[in-house]
Fold this sequence. Notes:
This protein is mainly α. The protein has helices spanning 3-30, 38-47, 49-69, 74-80, 83-94, 102-119. The longest helix has 28 residues, at 3-30.
Amino acid sequence: MGIQEFVLFLISIVAGVVGQFFLKSGALKLGQLTASNAISHVIGIATTPELVIGLCFYAVAAVLYILLLTRVPLSVLAPSVALQYVFSVMLGRFVFNEPITLLRLFGIAFIICGVVLLVARK
């Protein structure tokens, strides 16, 4: 992966994580889904600004991913997208005050090590 591909990759990852932030924020506005509010939730998804913004960021991430697929092997790119999980856990911790357990820390470490091994050149 060259420098141009790496920059596009990082932008794609950031767009995905920002999309997750907005989706979580919008979901919190909707509240919990129950059998009695299912229809209003579906309508709420289309009318909650945070959810629409989150979906737009996801679309940007997807377009960049498709562009990267023309230049980077799938066997490297697809697993590397797992870095979104790492940043999402951090986002959950620092923005939404979600706990990070020791087991999650090990999982994050394994993801990072795996991505480094995948993108490392011989």
